[in-house]
Write a structure and sequence with these properties.
The complex is a heterodimer of chains A (360) and B (205). Chain A is mainly α and 360 residues long. Chain A contains eleven helices and seven strands. In chain A, a hairpin with a 2-residue loop joins strand 5 and strand 6. Chain B is of the alpha+beta class. Chain B starts with 12 loop residues before the first helix and ends with a helix. The chains are: A mainly alpha (360), B alpha+beta (205). Chains A and B meet through helix 1 of A and helix 2 of B.
Chain lengths: 360, 205
Amino acid sequence: MIDLAVKLTLAAFVFFGVLNLAALHTWLERKQSAIIQDRIGANRASIMGWRLMGLFHPLADSIKMFMKEDIVPAGADRILHTLAPAFSVFFALVAFAGIPFGDRLVLGGRVIELQIANIDAALLYVFAMLSLGVYGVILAGFASRNNYALLGGLRATAQMISYEIALGIAIIGLVMVYGTMNLQEIVRGQAKYLGGWIPLWGIVVQPVAFFVFLTAALAETKRVPFDLPEGESEIIGYFVEYSGMKFGMFFLADFLETILVACLATTLFFGGWQVPYLTPDGFRFPWGTTIAVSQWIYVLLGVASFSIKVVAFCVLFMQIRWTLPRFRYDQLMRLGWLGLFPISVVNALVTAAVLAFFID
Amino acid sequence: MAVKVLHRRELTFWEKLYVPQIVGGLKVTSAHLFRNLFLHAAHRVGRLKHLRASVTSQYPEEPRLLATRFRSRHRLTVREDGTPRCVGCMLCETVCPAKCITIVAGEHPDPNVEKYPVRFDIDLGVCVYCGYCVEVCPEDAIRMDTGILDVAAYSRDAMKLDIHELMDPALRKPVSNCSLKFPHQCRVASGQLKDHRSGTQKVLH
C-alpha cells in the first residue's frame, strides 16, 4: 500500500514537472527564437496587468486550443483520428517512467529509488516507448483520409526507422562499457574520475556515440532540421487535418519527446543526477577538501543537477532548431543510412575491441 | 540557344562533415542570443540603454516617431477666438477623390469672412488619405498632422467625424466609444498615454 503511494507520488512529481516543462517549451520556443532574431517575442498575455515576460502565453494558448472547434474530416476514421494524438502523448509520457532523476532516498527504513519504474532493462523500455510514439504519427496520417497527411505519416515512418537504428547502435557501445541496461546503474557507473579530476561521464567515454545519439535523437523528435514529417508551412505534414486540442496534443507530444531525449542524453552521456565530486557522504574534491552533506541535501542536489542538465539540453535543442534549415529528404536518408549508421556500427565495434583487448 | 552552365562548388571534406558547419551556425545564433539576453538584463537594471537588444518597437506603448510630412487624421485649424478658420469655400469637398467630405456653409456674421461651415463631416471609412484637401485649402483650415493612426470603430457611422471632433483632435469618438477595455485602445482617450506629437501640436494650434 505504501509502496503504491510512493510510486504514485513519484509519478505525480515527474508528470507535474514534465508537463509543466512541456508547456514552458512553447514559451521558450517563442522567446528564444525571438531573442536570437533580435526580436522581443510574445509578451502581451497578462493577468491583472502582470505580463511576466509572456509567461502567461502557454496558458492562453492552451485555453485557446481547448476552445477551438474540433474538426474530423468527412470520410476520416473517427476512432483512429481521435486515438492518434492520444497515442502520441501517451507513449511520450509513459517513457518517462524509466528515467532516473535522482539517487536512492532512504526514508523511514524504506529505500526509494528516484525513478518511477526501476526496471532492469529501462533503456530498452524507454527506447521501445520512443519507437511506439511513431504509431500516433502514422495513425494520424492514415486516419485523416488526406493524401498529404498520409504522405507526411509515411515520411515520418521512414525517418523514424532510419534514425532509430543509428540511435540504438550508438547506445550499444555505452551499454558495453557500463555492462548494464539499467539506467540507474548506468548513472551510478558514471561516478568515476579520469585521473581523479575529470568526471568520467558517458560523453568522455563515448564521444562519437554522443554525437550520433544527439543527431539521431533530434531526428526522433521530428523538429527542425528534421521536421520533414511536419513541415508546417511548406511540405504538408501528418497533422493537417487536426484542429483544436488534438493538434495541440501533437505539439505537446513533440515537446515531450524533446524533453525525453534531453533526459536520455543527460542520463546516458552527462552523468544523470551525478554532481561532480559529490558522493553520498558529501563533496570529496580531488585536492583533498571534503564537505559533508546530509542525505536530503545530497538527493536534492542530484535532482537539481539532473533538472539543470535537462533544461540545458532543451535550450541547446531549441538553439539548433532555430539555427539550421530543414534537410532535404534524400539528404536526410543519406545522413541516416550512409552517415550515422556506419559511424555507430564502427563505434560499437571499436568499443568492443578496446574492451576486449585493452581493458582487463 | 544560350546555355548558361552553372558551376556548383564541390563541398570540401571539412564542409561535408556537417558538424563544423553546424557549430559555425550555432556560433552566430548563440552570439545573438547571449548578446541580446545580456542587454535585456542590463536594460532591466537601467544600464546600457543606448544599445538596443531588439529591433522591435512596442507599438501602442512606444509609438514610432512619424515623419513631419506624414498624413495622419485630419483636423480643422481654429482662429484665435476658437472659431474654425474654414470659410466654407467647398474646394476640399470638390477636390476630394473619395467624396468623403460634406460641407454645409452658412453666412458668417463678419462680412469680411462671408461664410463659415455649419457642418463639416469627414467619413474616415471612405477617406483615402491623399491629402488633396490640405493642399487645396486657401485658408490653411484643414491639416493632416494630428499623428492619430489608430482610427478604428465598431460601425461605419462611428467612422464619421463631425466638425467638433475635427476641431479638437482630443475628442476621438471612434475610440472613446470603444466599450471593450483593451489596454492598447483607450489609453490616449483617457489621457494615460501621452500623445508623442503633443509638443509640435502646441506650435501648430
